[in-house]
Write a structure and sequence with these properties.
The chain is α/β, with parallel strands linked by helices. It has 9 helices and 7 strands, in the order E-H-E-H-E-H-E-H-E-H-E-H-H-H-E-H. The chain has a 7-stranded parallel sheet with strand order 3-2-1-4-5-6-7, with helices on both faces. Strand 4, helix 4 and strand 5 form a beta-alpha-beta unit.
């Protein structure tokens, strides 16, 4: 699916964590389909820049600085959406936070709580108020942001893994709670994506990330945005409670660069080169 095939004229989308990266790309993608977009994040300056870009391209955008872990702030965010556009049809809960990578025993408890607050509590609060608004207009679609790390363990990322696994669990419960009330809830689980974080990490980090995927490359923020839009569209009308990996095949399993044969030695690179020489 491409975003060009999805039309959302008259619909309203809310993107939490929209100031940069995947969130900003998804906000732009929603706007290109004709949806009015409400943008939420803590960075007011970056958030308004995204909103201005959408307006400059003829779209409708409202920026609302929001701490997703604050219940009152999230309730006000959804109310601002209703006051401005009259309805809420689609939501993407993308905000995250947490400590820098470190072994579990080295993580400060307050830093661990920060990761859980943004990921688990933030997603819970988002859905709590988004669902109430969607029920008023007859239904809607919510997509939550997890990660491949929520489906498998990753060393040094205890708070992140716990948070993303919690989001997957919340998504499944919400999907079941409202499956017969016109609200679908799904979750995306990206692998290595070229966000601003990976860009800043440099070429070597990007090369290693690409090597970790069976496809041998990293994904783009537009890949995630397209999946979110599809899950919010009528094309996925019979899908709820699903976890969609966007990971170049990582979650499927292992793809060794070379396979050994039972009972036979395996040559190194130098040995292979020598055996292939004329």
């Amino acid at each position: 699916m491409t975003t060009a095939t999805t039309h959302s004229n008259g619909r309203v989308a809310l993107v939490a964590g929209a100031s940069r990266g995947i969130g900003a790309a998804t906000a732009h993608a929603f706007a290109r389909t004709g949806a009015a977009v409400v943008l939420a994040a803590r960075d007011q300056t970056a958030l308004e820049l995204v909103a201005e870009q959408i307006r400059a391209q003829g779209g409708r955008a409202l920026s609302v600085p929001t701490d997703v872990g604050d219940a009152r702030a999230v309730e006000q965010l959804v109310q601002r959406t209703l006051d401005t556009f009259g309805r809420l049809d689609m939501a993407f809960n993308n905000a995250t936070d947490g400590p820098m990578p470190a072994p579990l025993a080295d993580i400060d408890p307050d830093e661990f709580d920060r990761g859980v607050r943004a990921n688990v509590r933030g997603t819970f609060l988002g859905m709590k108020y988004q669902i109430k608004a969607m029920l008023r207009s007859g239904g809607g679609a919510i997509v939550n942001m997890a990660s491949l790390a929520g489906l498998t363990g990753v060393a040094n990322l205890s708070a992140y893994v716990a948070g993303k696994a919690g989001i997957i669990g919340l998504t499944r419960v919400a999907a079941l709670d409202y499956a017969d009330q016109g609200i679908r809830v799904n979750v995306v689980a990206p692998g290595p994506i070229l966000t601003h974080h990976l860009e800043r990490a440099g070429v070597e980090a990007q090369r290693l990330a690409a090597q970790s995927t069976p496809m041998g490359r990293i994904g783009q923020v537009e890949d995630v945005a397209a999946a979110v839009l599809w899950l919010c569209s009528d094309q996925s009308a019979f899908i709820t409670g699903a976890v969609l990996p966007i990971d170049g095949g990582q979650h499927a399993g292992l793809k060794p660069a070379r396979m050994y044969r039972q009972g036979q030695g395996m040559q190194g690179a130098a040995g292979r080169a020598a055996s292939q020489a004329p």
